Structure of SGNH/GDSL hydrolase family protein:
Amino acid sequence: MTFRFLVLGDSLAYGTGAASPQDTLGSRLTRVLRESGRATELSVLAVPGATSLGLAEQLDRAAAVDADLALLVIGANDLTHQVPADRSAAALGSAVRTLRERGTAVLVVPTPDLSSVAWVPPAFRAVVAGICDQLRARQTRAVEAAGGVVAPVGPGLATRFSADPTLFSADRFHSSSAGYALVAEALAPHLLQLAATRRDAAA
């Protein structure tokens, strides 16, 4: 039986900044699933630049995948495009609910801490971090109410990214291959736990 793994969201879900397709988040986590004994098929429908408001279109394209497990990485563009937090969280919650109704287990990586990116002036980092925290809290409530799981990796990853510029790609915003490796390592246990739950439910 093939385990169908779906990746939705923005440029971080797509893998912008990675040196090769094998270094992207989807590819790295697919290898994690395969190494756990699951024959896994990856479908990446993420769109660089997407906000939560664009998830509905991605879900339309994902309907034919019939995924067992979906990873959603979304939120950074909601902040940079100034999408109201209530609309952002509601759109994410709706996307998770749709996937759950299709029988898909859902792991969400919410808004990253954008205060760690180089172009944020030090004087504004606390403010940016606070705004990210507020949106992340709204996203978490919406995801959990819709039956999804939020990966609790944000603060730890932000600290690592702030301390190591090599985790960013040349644009100083997206992750580098090393950055994606770090994110995948943090997500792997949560992904495997959810995959096991999905397998047990199917059985």
Observations:
- The longest strand covers residues 2-9.
- The helical segments are 11-14, 25-35, 55-62, 76-80, 85-101, 125-145, 154-163, 177-202.
